[in-house]
Every structure is written in structure tokens, then in C-alpha cells.
Amino acid sequence: MSTATTNELIALHLRYGQGAEPLRVRAYAQIVAKVLYTNAENDNTLQSISKDVANALECPGVSRKQIAQALHFLAEHDHARESRSNWSLTDKGRETIDSDLTRAAARITSVLQRHFSQRIDPTILRIWFTEACIAFFHGFGDRWASSICRGAPLKTSINVQFEDLLKPSLKNHKLESEAEDLIRSFRLFVTSAVPEDAEQLWSVGQAMFAARLVAANISGDPITLREIQGSTILLDTNVLLVAALEKHRLADSLSALGRAFNQLGIRLKFLNISRDEYIKIVDYNYRTTLAVVSKYGREILDKSYNNFLSTALARGCTEQDHFETFFGTIKDPPYSIDDSQAISVLDYPELEESVKSGIKDEQLKQKIAEAWSNARLRTKKPKTVEHDAALIHAGRFLRAQKERCWVLTLDRTLHEYDLRHTHHKEYPLLLSFDVLIQILGLEEAGPGFDPTIFAPIMSSIIAYQLEPALVYCPKRFSTYINFRNY
User: For residue 133, which of 36, 16, 3, 12 has the smallest C-alpha distance?
Assistant: First the structure.
């Protein structure tokens, strides 16, 4: 009988190598293997496994057909075997989980020593930490599942308030007196750039993605690499800016995705309206940068988290004419990602008509604005709302022409709007960096490289979503922070 707790197993990501199996089968296989590991001394029939999976994920029920497919997947990979309608793990299957648990335990020990107070009983701290990780990724897992499935509308937004996320687990383990310190430490862990911390975030994130995909129990097949392969992806303006600014916090993420896009034969495009918005944003930052550079010294400039300024300084800009030259190099949208993946404008009359219809769609614009204001403390600029409505209309037009099309954005509120309003027979139109990376990681197919290279990238994306950049703001310098409502 295993001594691993249910939470420890749920938070464990199991890898089964490259293959052509659907993402859903792999997700189910992870959960089924964990149930077989826990119930090694019991009879494990298809019926009992289905019940145990539902109980472990605290959901009403799961598809028995999917459980059967997952069992056969495990059997084909020599991780499980059947005898007289009873299933069990093979030696290989059990040794794989044992090994993964050992690595995870060592990794968690390092994380706890690095970020958390050692005055708390280590056993209680470890149990609480695992429970806290599951609570933290529950919302992410649900959003990822909604992002890739037909008929899985998003019900709740990700709660970025650490206090609300962690209070239940703190109360469960009578750690309220340590709440302030534990919440601060957990925040440091989640936003850490330490590779081992990133690996732990990646492991738990992948595990919870699989768990929530199973718990969603959606009948339609989720998005797979085969759906994305050879498709057209429209880039939102915010993604074009990441491609242009190598010191953007997500630049490495986009570079890694760019290499995957290249191998998957994906066509990256942008609209004229996005190009116009990009040019205006760059021009605004050109003017504000020159004003700031003329007033403040390097010591203050180095403390700014503005992506334009950080990139210019990294390129060696010190004098005003240097900054002018820098902005001259980025005044137009980039036409490649790291020289590995081409980007081009998509422009023809029928498409432009769809853009115009989006600009005039008052109902859509109102919903986009409301989605933003419900999550932010400020309103979204009318021109930005028009752009977003045009982008959605263009994507819908391309899909109506039977073209496989997606929109890649960094705007979480726009992404969540799309998830809430996607027809139950359709895939969501908008994708985010983290959703694409989860698909690449869980499928382990196509790109031809180890998906764990995405661990630090996922960590950076999560930190970007949860932690608005801390900005150094001397008097009037605060106006030079946000280049757009992202």
C-alpha cells in the first residue's frame, strides 16, 4: 500500500513520452495511474476505478469510456495490466511513480527551505504546501480546460488574491497565526525565477491541468496539436510588442513558442488595425521615453519595469540619439520571431469588411469593456475596445471561410470573455501563451524537444498574470508605465 497522500499524487505530473494519443487520453491516464497506485491492494475493476477517479477529483462522475481508453493506453506503454477484469500497475508503472514521487519530494524540500519559515513543523508545512499548490492551480486548471474544449464555458475567473486562495488550507491546518508569513512566502515561490521552483510549478500545473480536464467531463474532444498544426494564428498587438522587445518578461516564452510554431507549420499573421495600434503605442512610448531620459539618470531608469525602456537600455542606449535610433528599429511591427518564424500582415477586402463590422458592433464592444472593468480598476480605452472587437470579428470571419484560425493574446480579460461566450459546439477562438504551452507539454508530441523546457516559461507567464510589474515611480514618472491596458 502506498504511503503517498491523495494530494501528493494529484499534484504529481506523470510523463509517458511522445505519441499520437489524444490529449484527453493522456490526461485520464495520469489520474487512472494514480488511482491504481493508491489502490494496489484492492480489486480495480472498470467500475471501481471510475468511481475512485471521481472521488479523487471531487466531481459527480467521469466517462467510463474514457477510463477504458486510458487503461488501454497505460497497458500499451507497459504501465498497467489486466487480469480477469481487474487492473493493476506493472512493475514499470509503479517504479515510474515511485521515482517521480521521490524527485518531487526532494524538490519540495528545497522549495520549502528556500522560501518558508523553518519554525513550522516540517510535516505540517509540507502537507499544507501541497494543498495550497492544488488550491492555487485549481482555477488555472479550469481555465486551461475551458480554453481547449468545446462545451466547457468558463464559470469563474482565476482568483489572484493569495489570501482568498490560501485561507481554507491555512484554517484546515490551524496555521492562521502564520498566515501573513506563509502567504508572503507562497507568493515568492510562485513568482520565483529559480529553476527548481519553476520545475515544481510546471509539474503541479501540468498535473492540475490533467485533473481539471478529466473533472470537466466534457463530451467533445479537446484541442490537440493536430488542430493547431498548419493553422493561421492572428497575433494581438500585445503579442507583436513582445516579439519586438526582447526584454519583455514574456520574450523567452514567445521565442520558444515561435520554434514550436515553425515546426508545426503555423502561419502567424496580424491585421492592419493591429499594425496601426502597434505604431501608435510605439510612438507614444518614443515621446515619453525621450522625456523621461532627459530628466532622470541611469540609476532611476534601471529601476523602471517598462519593457521599451528595459530593452533600449539592454541594447546599450545611453544618449538621446541612441534612444531615437532604437525606436526607429521597432517603429513597424516585427516580421519574425527570433528569425525562426515569419510574421506577416493579413489583408484583403472581405477581411477588412469583417474588421469594420467589428468596430461597429456595439454589443460586443460593451461586453469586452465590461469584462475588462470587472477585473481591473480602470476602464479600457475605447480605441482598444474597437481593436479587440475587430480582431474577434476577423477571427470569426476566417473560421466561417473554413480556415482553421486562432487568436493569440496576452489580454486575460479578453481571453476569459471569449471562454464565457463560445458556442458549445465550437472551440474558443482566443488562445493564451499558457494554454498553448500546456497543450505542448501534456501531448509531448510534435515540436521535437523536451516539453520540460517550458517550465521556466510557464513560471514567467504565471508571474506575469498574477503580479503586475512593480514600478519605481518618482514624481510624474508614474505616467510612463503602461503602454496599453494590458
Answer: 12
Q: Which residue has the higher pLDDT, 485 or 211?
A: 211
Q: What is residue 336's DSSP assignment?
A: E
Beta-bridge mates of residue 431: 408
Helix 122-148 vs helix 91-115: crossing angle, to nearest 10: 110
Question: Residue 252 pLDDT more than 90?
Answer: no
Average pLDDT, the chain: 81
User: How far separated are the first and last CA of the chain, in Å rounded?
Assistant: 50
Cα–Cα distance for residue pair 259/408, rounded to 1 Å: 15
Specify the pLDDT at position 259.
Answer: 81
C-alpha to C-alpha distances, 259 to 250, 392, 427, nearest whole angstrom: 15, 26, 24
The answer to whether the beta carbons of residues 214 and 31 sit under 8 Å apart is yes
Residue from 464, 453, 465, 466 nearest 199 by CA: 453
Kindly report the pTM of this predicted structure: 0.72
**Helix (H) / strand (E) containing 170:** helix 162-172
**Residue 221's pLDDT band (boundaries 50, 70, 90)?**
low
Residue 337, strand partner residues: 341
- Which residues face 407 on adjacent strands? 234, 430
Give residues with Cβ within 8 angstroms of 42, minimum separation 6: 48
Separation between Cα atoms, residue 253 and residue 460, nearest integer Å? 8
Put residue 425 in one of left, alpha, beta given phi > 0 → left and psi -120 to 50 → alpha.
alpha
Percent helix / strand / coil, the chain, rounded to 5: 60, 5, 30
Q: How many CB atoms lie within 10 A of CB 88?
A: 18
Residue 212 has pLDDT above 60, yes or no: yes
428 or 401, higher pLDDT: 401
For 180, 294, 297, 436, the CA distances from 319, given in Å and listed in that order, are 44, 9, 11, 40
Q: What is the pLDDT of residue 416?
A: 82
Provide the grid cell at 297.
Answer: 539618470
Closest CA to 134 of 37, 201, 218, 196: 201
**DSSP state string for 227-281:** HHTT-EEEEPHHHHHHHH-TTSTTHHHHHHHHHHHHHTTPEEEE-HHHHHHHHHH
For residues 391 and 410, the answer to whether their CB atoms sit within 8 Å is no
145-195 pLDDT per residue, tens: 666 665 555 555 555 566 777 888 899 999 999 999 999 999 888 878 788
CA distance 97 to 74: 13
